[in-house]
Amino acid sequence: MVRLEVCLSLSVAGLLLCGVAQTQTPTLPDDVDRADALLKQMTTAEKIGQLNQPFYIKLPIPGDKTDPVSYEDRVRHGEVGSFLFLTDPKEINRLQKICDD
């Protein structure tokens, strides 16, 4: 029984270490240069907007005040980096194309 526990423990530890090793991919210098160039083009307000992750909720919640600014307007003005709990592919695609309008 002890031998089985030791084998299972070592197996789990090995799997965890393999997972960590696979998630660390080297960054190419070109990738860093492209990211730096993009960040230099962005305003401070745009950078802050990319950090914003509002909840995407379309259902009315009793006692909750509705935001006077629509999701679409926030996306147009660069005030949203991503939405939490948005899973509908059609809605995601629609919101992604707002800036192209």
TrEMBL record:
Keywords: Signal. One of its GO terms (biological process) is carbohydrate metabolic process. InterPro entries: Glyco_hydro_3_N_sf. It comes from the Bacteria. The keyword Signal applies. GO terms for molecular function: hydrolase activity, hydrolyzing O-glycosyl compounds. Residues 1-23 form the signal peptide. This is Beta-glucosidase.
